[in-house]
Amino acid sequence: MAARDLQERIKRLIIDRRLPSGAPLPPEPALMEYLGASRNSVREALKALQAMGIVEIRHGFGTYVGPMSLAPMIEGLAFRTVAGHYRGEDSLLQLLELREAVETGLVSRLAGRIPEADLVELDALVDRMEHQAARGAGLAETDRAFHATLYRGLDNALLSEVLEAFWDAFHRVRTDLGGVPQDPRVTCRQHREILDAVRSGDARRAEEAIREHFGNIRDRLSTPAPHDPRSRHDERV
Amino acid sequence: MAARDLQERIKRLIIDRRLPSGAPLPPEPALMEYLGASRNSVREALKALQAMGIVEIRHGFGTYVGPMSLAPMIEGLAFRTVAGHYRGEDSLLQLLELREAVETGLVSRLAGRIPEADLVELDALVDRMEHQAARGAGLAETDRAFHATLYRGLDNALLSEVLEAFWDAFHRVRTDLGGVPQDPRVTCRQHREILDAVRSGDARRAEEAIREHFGNIRDRLSTPAPHDPRSRHDERV
DNA sequence: TAGCTCAGTTGGTTAGAGCAGCTGACTCTT
DNA sequence: AAGAGTCAGCTGCTCTAACCAACTGAGCTA
After folding, report:
1. Res B223: pLDDT
2. pLDDT at residue B48 above 90?
3. Ranges of residues in chain A whose predicted pLDDT is under 50
4. pLDDT of residue B59
5. Is the pLDDT assigned to residue B237 strictly greater than 80?
6. What confidence category does residue B1 fall into, taking pLDDT thresholds of 50, 70 and 90?
7. Cβ of A104 under 8 Å from any chain B Cβ?
8. What's the confidence (pLDDT) of residue B149?
9. How many secondary structure helices (H) and strands (E) does chain A include?
10. Nucleotide with smallest C1' distance to residue B58 CA
11. Closest Cα partner for A93 from A208, A231, A222, A210?
């Protein structure tokens, strides 16, 4: 009867006092008194809020209002996807389709409306991608930056964060599951095409470019990965 | 050092044993022994997992693998939005724009591809909406059902859930903040138009219909609401 | 003045006791 | 024999009290 209430009351504390991200919360003893609950209960409530990203706890330092990022959502999505995968569902594919559906919709609105500065940045990113491909390095981070920069023009921080969250969740699961790596040269070419299409202002072409990019990833997914004996989630059934 | 690990180990327990949603987890004493930690630590880990929807705890009954729904994401999004709002940000508008961006993208792909059965169901929903409008009742639930049914044709459970989560978060915040109510007749007309457009298979028209629908909501948002003295988050600064 | 040390504050962990909700079997009544 | 009420047992919930561990900053030392 108390526990659920405690979380709610701490949340209201943050709202009512207009505490911004990073503001310090009262230490545990003060919260105990304010909430009229034991340390244990207070801590359990804080743990739950921490898991939701509402609160940030730093050992030996204090408790603070969290960054309100979507990190917990990534966590949840990733776990849900991994669990589904191991139960034989196509959860990873669904996650990829979610990204594809959203991004194809957005890119067609974006075509021709991206500020020149962003286009230059995107050029640089694809260049870097090509360098990395030539050197045999991983492109993951650059790929992430490309997509993030691409949708920056939408001028909606929440939307950008959600897209990045989807990206993060997908790639976390992907590496956890040890999928088949992309051919870096193909990936580069596809990103170049997306950029060109967006620059040209041809919405349909941009959409098609995105779709092809995801199609490529999808093909790699459905290829049954060579069984990796180092996989962390073996046996132990 | 332990706490973060405990969550991880419980998650691995679920993964490794391929536990489906609803499967029972070991009771607290058993977990204490298995994890080699005290009751308190185990409980804190479980609370955090519960907040992420990974685990479901029923007092006096047991602990179970959670439904893996996106409910925690709704919670987080809603809180983030409310907190931002009270700090003077346009977070609610951003949330609405997120929905608009995603739904306009999806509906154009959907136009003309919705199964007849779903169209019939959508007809019934708009009819009900009109009845409710005439009776002066709330349309929220019917509106939710309309959007849910509309995107069912995408055949991606995850995508549907994400859209519903966005809807839920938006409406939770909206009622929390006591916004200006829509004119029900306008809302009905707009849903009818969306349905007609989708049925006709005209992607552009469908997109426009969705955009107009959201535009209507947006207008109501930016209208500064008459100050409601019953608002839960008054004063107390 | 620069660096170190240590005391104080804050969160992390453990232990043990008792409370509270739910289930299912047992018993008593009809 | 069938039904309703009771109670024993699991389960999770809350509290108290003590100690451990990380970090900060003031004060001391060189």
Report:
1. 64
2. yes
3. 226-237
4. 94
5. no
6. low
7. yes
8. 96
9. 10, 2
10. D12
11. A222
Q: In the predicted model, is pLDDT for residue B236 greater than 70?
A: no
In whole angstroms, give the CA distance from residue A67 to residue A50: 10
pLDDT for the residue B235: 36
Q: Is the pLDDT of residue B211 over 90?
A: yes
pLDDT of amino acid B11:
96
> Within 7 A of a protein CB, which nucleotides of strand C?
8-17, 20-23
pLDDT score recorded for residue A233: 43
A54 → closest Cβ in B52, B79, B159? B79
Q: Strand, helix or coil at B109?
A: helix
| CA quadruple A176, A180, A184, A190: dihedral sign | negative
Alpha-helical runs (H) found in chain B: 3-16, 28-35, 39-51, 71-86, 91-110, 116-135, 140-150, 157-176, 184-200, 203-222
From the list B54, B83, B104, the residue facing A68 with the nearest CB is B83
CA-CA distance, A205 to A197, in Å (whole number)?
6
Taking a C-beta distance cutoff of 8 angstroms, is the pair A72, B80 a contact? no
The token duo for A224 is: 């049954």
**Preferred mutation among A155, A158, A177 to probe B, highest tally of B CBs within 10 A:** A158
- State the pLDDT at residue A26: 97
- Average the pLDDT over each of A221-230, B50-59, B141-150, B158-167 and give the range with the smallest value: A221-230
Residues in chain A with CB shorter than 8 Å from the CB of B63 are none
Q: State which protein residues have CB closer than 7 Å to strand C.
A: A 1, 25, 27-29, 39-40, 43, 46, 57-63; B 1-3, 36-41, 44, 58-61
Cβ neighbours, 10 Å, residue A134 = 11
Measure the CA dihedral A144/A150/A153/A158, to 10°.
Answer: -30
Query: Is the Cα torsion angle A7, A169, B111, B149 positive or negative in sign?
Result: negative
In whole angstroms, D26 C1' to A55 CA is 29
Closest in B44, B54, B84 to A44, CB measured: B44
User: In angstroms, what separates the C-alpha of B179 from chain A's closest C-alpha?
Assistant: 18
Tokens of A10: 């701490």
pLDDT of residue A232: 43
Check B68 against A83: CB less than 8 A apart: yes
- Chain D: bases < 7 Å from a protein Cβ: 9-18, 21-24
Are the beta carbons of B86 and A15 separated by less than 8 Å? yes
Residue environment code for A18-54, b if the CB has 16+ CB neighbours within 10 A, otherwise e: ebebeeebeeeeebbeebebeeebbbbbbbbbbbbbb
Contact at CB, B156 and A12, closer than 8 angstroms? no
The verdict on a CB contact (< 8 Å) between B52 and A51 is yes
